[in-house]
Amino acid sequence: MLHGRHQMNGSDTLVLVFQNAAKPLNDAIPGIYSGKITQPEVAEMHERYTWMKFAQRVPSADYFFVKDHFSSVYGWYLIDNGKFIYEQFNAELTAFIQEHGYKRVIAFGSSKGGTGALIYGLMNPLITDVFSLIPQIYVARFINKLCPDEKSLFFGTKKGFEKQVDTILFSDALYRNYTKKKLYFYTGTLDIQFDALMKYRKFLSKKGIDSELFLNRSDERHTRLVNQYTPFIFCVLEDLIDQSERRIEQHVVTVNPSVRLLKEQ
Description:
The protein is α/β, with parallel strands linked by helices. Helices cover 38% and strands 18% of the residues. The radius of gyration is 18 Å and the shape is globular.
């Protein structure tokens, strides 16, 4: 189940790069649903990995670009046509990390990749750091906005499954093996699930789980919150690799111990 591209640089630090849904994949959903777009064509779209330029620029870590092609489209590293896959996926992820002897593991991704990084950062005690960009907290609600007519590609026909998907991040099962780690979120005030993320951070706090928020107050939304701010994102990720904050401090103003505002407004 765990598949993707492993870039090995001889490091004992691994960056797991969970992929976002690229525009060609989202545009293909109606064609996949109708059968006009074949699975080999979908598989080819999944070979276009994001964040490769960062990995080439910063070879001080190993990287695993994690593919999210388990079903006919994608599934937030969580679902496959009406069933959950996260327990099996997490078991394979654990085996992969142990097989390669990684001492530090950073889970990173944006949008659905941000959700994937968050889920396994919570579940897997071998993951030491999480950087989740503009994650979907309520996945089912997002699917219903993205493709309401084709949502059976994700949910199948199982009664009640859609609701289970929507509340998965509030399920106690994800937190059974949680270990203290650095947990970073990045979002903007106009992101589609900004309010949901604020609610979720309160939920984490009640569980005794600390998180830090990098907040963008610009008028950018979702994808552009990432595409237009890659220098900042690169700095945070490189500081996580180096276990430093010297690059981050150039880009943010600290409001309180858990919230920092981007200067680029």
